[in-house]
Structure formats: C-alpha cells, structure tokens
Amino acid sequence: MSRTRVRKVNRQSPVLLFLIVVVALVVIIACSVRTMSLSEQSKQLSITETSLENQLNEAQAKTEELEEREKYMQTKKYIEDEAKNKLGLVNKDEIVIKPKEDDE
Asked: At a CB cut-off of 8 Å and minimum separation 6, what does 72 contact?
C-alpha cells in the first residue's frame, strides 16, 4: 500500500512542479512589465522635474528683477527720470537742446 501512495505522489509531482514553474514565470513576467512601466514613469517625472526647476529659476530671477525695480522706483532718481521723460521737465541748472525740426 505504501508503494501506491509513493507512485501517486511521484505522478502528481511533475504536474505540481509544472504549475509552480508556470506561476513563478507569470510572477516574474508581471514584475518585469511593472519594472519597465515604473522606469518609463521615472524618466517622465525626471523630465517634468527639470522643467519645473527651470520655471522656478526663471520665476526667482523675475522676482529679483522686480524687487530691484521696486527699489529703484522709490528713489529720487526714478522720479526725476519719469518727470523728464513723461512731462518734459528739467532741473534749473540744465540746458535742453532739441534738434531742429525740418519743415519739408
């Protein structure tokens, strides 16, 4: 009776081994596909990160430029420049020389 049991285990063993191998292959294939997918996603996120860092650097540069302009706009020099450019005003000690207009 023990021989019969041994033979049944031996007959089932190749089938069981085959199923284990198939399951292992399916798991390995699934992991490989997921790894490739995550690798591609990682590349895309890296590109996005670089783009966002560039935008951040540009925004910081623009902020610094605006802060410098704000400081300049609070000076007396800015007020004088604007008065000269927009209103045509001059200081008392300045002489204005204008080009002669041709009447052609």
From this structure: 78
The per-residue pLDDT for range 9-42, each reduced to its tens digit, is 455 688 888 999 999 999 999 999 999 999 999 9
CA distance 35 to 23: 18
Instruction: For the full predicted model, state whether its pTM sits above 0.85.
Output: no
Residue 17's alpha-carbon distances to 13, 14, 23, 85, 88, in angstroms, are: 6, 5, 10, 91, 96
Phi-psi region of 91 (alpha: psi -120 to 50; beta: other; left: phi over 0): beta
Q: Of 73-77, 94-98, 100-104, which has the strongest mean pLDDT?
A: 73-77
Are 72 and 78 in contact, with CB atoms under 8 Å apart?
Answer: yes
